[in-house]
Amino acid sequence: xxxxxxxxxxxxxxxxxxxxxxxxxxxxxxxxxxxxxxxxxxxxxxxxxxxxxxxxxxxxxxxxxxxxxxxxxxxxxxxxxxxxxxxxxxxxxxxxxxxxxxxxxxxxxxxxxxxxxxxxxxxxxxxxxxxxxxxxxxxxxxxxxxxxxxxxxxxxxxxxxxxxxxxxxxxxxxxxxxxxxxxxxxxxxxxxxxxxxxxxxxxxxxxxxxxxxxxxxxxxxxxxxxxxxxxxxxxxxxxxxxxxxxxxxxxxxxxxxx
Amino acid sequence: xxxxxxxxxxxxxxxxxxxxxxxxxxxxxxxxxxxxxxxxxxxxxxxxxxxxxxxxxxxxxxxxxxxxxxxxxxxxxxxxxxxxxxxxxxxxxxxxxxxxxxxxxxxxxxxxxxxxxxxxxxxxxxxxxxxxxxxxxxxxxxxxxxxxxxxxxxxxxxxxxxxxxxxxxxxxxxxxxxxxxxxxxxxxxxxxxxxxxxxxxxxxxxxxxxxxxxxxxxxxxxxxxxxxxxxxxxxxxxxxxxxxxxxxxxxxxxxxxxxxxxxxxxxxxxxxxxxxxxxxxxxxxxxxxxxxxxxxxxxxxxxxxxxxxxxxxxxxxxxxxxxxxxxxxxxxxxxxxxxxxxxxxxxxxxxxxxxxxxxxxxxxxx
Lengths: 258, 366
What we know:
The complex is a heterodimer.
Chain A: H1 3-31, H2 41-57, H3 61-77, H4 82-107, H5 111-134, H6 138-147, H7 152-181, H8 189-220, H9 237-256
Chain B: H1 10-35, H2 39-53, E1 58-59, E2 65-66, H3 71-78, H4 80-98, H5 106-129, H6 137-168, H7 183-216, H8 243-261, H9 284-293, H10 305-311, H11 329-363
Helix pairs in contact in B: 1-4, 1-5, 2-4, 3-4, 3-5, 3-6, 3-7, 4-5, 5-6, 6-7
């Protein structure tokens, strides 16, 4: 098989597998025991959002660096390996933001300080988001969104999207692998583009069929267009303690970073 | 183009959430009204699909690869409102679960890619595709253009949001607190990548998917083509007798009118700027006119050596749109126009014949 013929299919399969792997890791860590896993998802989501907003608002570097340190400690306490955060969050964030921030050192007045703000802020927010995702199962996270007054229909669609994401991921991976295994010889760029467009088109047609089947299945189970989410567990006293911790941290960042 | 947390100020983030909210509300209300119970499954599956399509590494002309957002494809299949919701959902999942794009920037990312992208893609697609049949090649071109323009509009919006940050938000020392580059750096930096790689990726995906669906599943293209003529919608390549003439009749009439109007060109005096002949260098009236049109910069006194040498390499049979054997300049103009247009039409007929021959030859090979 030529290098070119393997190109599109192989690269796309890698991207799809990486996504599945990341989601599986997040799910596994979220269901294990730990500091943040014990916290109610609604308050955890609200608390993390408060701290992220405070970090984005801060006009000083030290409070942002303190939040980064705190979120690493929280990750360790929740059984999330720092190495996992480094590979999934820090390296991509540093590569992307670094590429943007580095030239500003030479192009912008006070560029070094500006670059430090950009890098530290984006890495800290990405770490907080990762800590939230790695310690909260997706359905619980969606309940948290519902508590933040996101409409039930939107939360339902998000939940279903997550479920069918893996179903369509499987179809896409199977399709690309079978195509790759049957590809012999050199494919030109135009042929590769046709293959990519064909793959997207097939997925589109299958998705329409899938949505019809899901729709009929929902109707047969009594769905009448109204979306409801299951009752959440009651918020316990220790949840409020955690939330107070997040709130105090956010207030401190806002105060020292004003 | 997924803006991470920390690049935009809280004020910008709030503004962008505020700008996106009415579109989300309107899109959801509209989808619920038209689809009712089908809204949730259709949007869920399409959001999942949008997410996956964003992961495709599309091979681009020139040997590079790129990722597409898939916004034009979604707008063409689902319509603008469905596309707004499905791309927004995919972006929310990317931000919340995969850390691609910031949580505080979800409003901005959705506004740039899902809302502006979908509306622009839909408008461009409808404008260019017009009443063309579902199977028409024009729809493929319309889809490609829709993808290209939509993704570049999205990128421009993101660049403007970036570029406004250093103007509005800096600390006591004057250091930019968020995205550091002003508009004159942010816009070109952002647009170069999108006018080339990302724009091409979106074009390849949108045009390719539409071309594929025209053959495999044309029904999926009908929702956003209410005025499409049905003649070509059925089997591709089968055209109703006389349909080609009816479709192109306005163009032929316009061409005839333009040909008849060509003598009007004589009214315009002088030469077009930069199209001077060696004789103009020694003609005082021509020199004055050229100087007036060139910001009072005089022509050199002598004809440049290169111009003199190359001016006589090729002598046109109809120099300055007039045949030497004709006395009437107006008739010469008309004859030149008819000759030029005729030659172009003949060239296209010849190329079409070659293309048809090549296609028929390829179709015969099993």
